[in-house]
Amino acid sequence: MSPVTGSLPSEPRAVAVPVSWWRSPGATRLLPPLLITCILVGAHLTYGILEAYQQTAVAIVVAIGAEVVFGRLAFGRWPHPASAYITGISVGILVRSPFLWPFALASLISIASKYVLRFRGRHLWNPSNFGVSAVVFLAPSTAAVLSIQWGNNVWPMVVIWVLGSAIVWRVKRLHISATYVAAFVVFAFVRSLITGNPWLAAVAPLTGPMYQLFVFFMVTDPRTTVSSRRGQIVVVILVAFVEMLLRLHEVIYAPFYALFLVGPAALALEAWRRQPRPAAPGG
User: Domain coordinates of the chain in residue numbers?
Assistant: First the structure.
């Protein structure tokens, strides 16, 4: 009996257990920014990849500001800043220049490409890939792309690869990253046979922070990858193949240019194949 009401005690009420943060929709949006922040912090603390903090800050601020302005003007709503943050911090990590304007320009071009270069309602290029490629192509004397490795510090690299693999698995993109890595390793062996250079030297770039951004963010971008799983695998193998050809011709920024060429072509082809066919006369 209840001592207050004199009635039998009620059954305990079921308590709703909230969905874990890892499986929540918010985690899908926040995990990639957390991962890329870990890459930035780990790479800088262990090897000092940043020339100055203000350059990365400028890239992030310009990217988020451009996203807010363009999103409001184009769609009449305030966009979520997570995507722009990823773009800005990617630019801040990848671009190398003693000046501030290449960082601001790369971020601005990256975000603008999402709203200007569209085909059938979607943008074709990965924003940061487009912006970085454009800046290093147009201003090669004042801007370059990060090319250093982790040195002999293997544990930061291991941590980033583990976290990155878990996150892209969470968003169902692990097969893209894994396929690219496997294709890169195979084509590195082919390059070593052609050039006579050691195979390990050909594979080594894959372990650097630049390729970690490329593998976990650029080639897996949901907005700029084809829809089918088989198509995603084929496209990423083609990216690795074109990269091999560019490397054989001593193109410095081979992975960025390879994705710049292959990715949009695949998306445009997919959109064209989905275009409704005109009905037959009298049909």
Answer: 29-272
Tokens of 254: 């081979």
Q: pLDDT per residue over 129-184, tens digit each?
A: 999 999 999 998 889 887 665 555 667 677 778 888 888 888 889 999 999 999 99
The DSSP code for 97 is: -
d(CA 168, CA 160): 12
pLDDT in tens, 76-115: 888 888 889 989 988 988 898 889 999 999 999 999 999 9
d(CA 226, CA 155) in angstroms, rounded, equals 34
Token look-up 């996203």 returns 67
CB atoms inside a 10 Å sphere around CB 45? 11
- DSSP assignment of 157-178 equals HHHHHHHHHHHHHHTT-HHHHH
- Say how far apart CA 36 and CA 51 lie, in whole Å: 18
Residue type, 245: L
Structure tokens, 116:
């200007």
Q: How many C-beta atoms surround the C-beta of residue 83 within 10 A?
A: 21
Give the C-alpha distances (Å, rounded to integers) separating 176 from 128, 164, 191, 266.
18, 12, 22, 15
* Residues 127, 62 contacting (CB under 8 angstroms): no
